[in-house]
């Protein structure tokens, strides 16, 4: 089981690195577009469209890594004064809810990708890119986040995650 968990962590780390690399490529593409527009009066065709696709990929590939590292936004207005068992139960409810929501998004996202591929849906824009290209990272990233929330729930139940006031 530890080998499977290590492989999962390597996958999450790889997805985090890919997301970071996409962010750098996105920044470079934007700088290139602005520079070309400034010096030559026009940018590259499709950069905005590709940038939008890159943002979706970056977000969903990096989301599980951010979740594992505790970097997601947490609204602790209700939980900041909880301690002990109450804090643990609240954290468990949040982790289980996150698991359910992410796995549902993964399932419906997978269905959307399959439907899009079967129908051959293409986004009508500067570049004709299959819609599935935009959708593929959504079920994959949501599945990984669901698994990460599930791992958090299991670790909370085992007492391996210390739950303190204001923790998420």
TrEMBL record:
GO terms for biological process: C4-dicarboxylate transport. GO terms for cellular component: plasma membrane. The chain crosses the membrane at residues 12-32, 44-67, 87-110. It is a multi-pass membrane protein. Residues 26-156 form the Tripartite ATP-independent periplasmic transporters DctQ component domain. It is found in: Cell inner membrane. Keywords: Cell inner membrane, Cell membrane, Membrane, Transmembrane, Transmembrane helix, Transport. InterPro entries: DctQ, TRAP_DctQ. GO terms for molecular function: transmembrane transporter activity. It comes from the Bacteria. Coiled coil: none annotated. The complex comprises the extracytoplasmic solute receptor protein and the two transmembrane proteins. Belongs to the TRAP transporter small permease family. Part of the tripartite ATP-independent periplasmic (TRAP) transport system. PANTHER family: 2,3-DIKETO-L-GULONATE TRAP TRANSPORTER SMALL PERMEASE PROTEIN YIAM. This is TRAP transporter small permease protein. The lineage of its organism: Bacteria, Pseudomonadati, Pseudomonadota, Alphaproteobacteria, Rhodobacterales.
């Amino acid at each position: 089981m530890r080998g499977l968990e290590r492989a999962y962590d390597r996958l999450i780390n790889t997805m985090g690195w890919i997301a970071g690399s996409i962010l750098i490529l996105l920044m470079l593409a934007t700088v290139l577009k602005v520079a070309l527009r400034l010096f030559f009066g026009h940018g590259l065709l499709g950069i905005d469209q590709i940038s939008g696709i890159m943002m979706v990929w970056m977000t969903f590939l990096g989301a599980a890594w951010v979740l594992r590292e505790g970097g997601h936004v947490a609204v602790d207005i209700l939980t900041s004064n909880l301690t002990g068992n109450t804090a643990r139960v609240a954290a468990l409810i949040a982790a289980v809810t996150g698991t359910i929501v992410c796995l549902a998004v993964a399932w419906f996202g997978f269905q959307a990708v399959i439907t899009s591929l079967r129908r051959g849906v293409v986004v009508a824009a500067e570049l004709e890119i299959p819609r599935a290209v935009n959708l593929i990272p959504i079920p994959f990233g949501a599945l990984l986040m669901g698994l990460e929330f599930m791992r958090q729930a299991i670790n909370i139940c085992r007492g391996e995650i210390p739950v303190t006031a204001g923790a998420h």
